[in-house]
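[AMINO ACID CHAIN]
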Amino acid sequence: MKTKVIAVVVILVALAATLWFMRSRPADVKFAADGMDFARLEHELPLSTAERESLTPDQLAGYAQEQVDQIYGRLTAGPIPDGAYDGDLFFPRGTDGETRLGEIIEGRLQARLASLGVRKTESLGRLLWKGKVFYRDQRLLRNRIEDLAILTPILGGNTDGIEKLTVNGRDTYLLFPAKLYCGQSLLDGRRESVIIDYAFTDELSGYREAPDSLGGRNGVRIRDEIRMVRPGFYLGRAYMKGVFGLNFTLINRDVEAAGRSGFRAGDIAEDCWTGSHVASR
């Protein structure tokens, strides 16, 4: 009798472990053949809630660009974010993306970077840029820079008046202001994305000629767009002079945790036009 009881307990424990594993295992994101039209892709392989919850910044950074594009094309903009978000960036895999930013960086800055041992532009981006701060009500954004040493050749040692903010216990400088609005995606015109526009950065509060002009209409004319993977987590694309340059992710863990239950229930706020999109469950 005792042996039977032990056997039943073992079976129940194994069954519980199997169910836990199946529920906790990340969902595999499904992809179509390269080049499939986004409308068809979304109809045949819509992103489920489980797939979107399984995605992480590191996972996105490991995908081929076609896969990143297919994920982006199946997302909607979600709400315009508010507050500080941690950022990471990654260039298109399988392309010569490392040289893209190098082509637009001034020679004197390139020399300074070489002296610091920074030779790859993706490394530069991660070293220089730590995320964004959204001011939703003002439709304004500022970028988080923690180390101004790299910008010394441009700043000329003048750091007076640069606004600072403490995020996650660290001081961060707020530079490169941009306008926030809903607008057409340059990748997927079927619906809008949240646009981060630096074209008229010189008209915005907190603007500094050096270094903010680098990203504006007299510089490389940066235009970002983002869509929501899930509350608190966004996938973005950066364009320079109208040409796609790199991908980036933005995440706020507090917003992510607060929005989890509503997201799972299908309660997704949208500030921008979603076209004919119907969220998959």
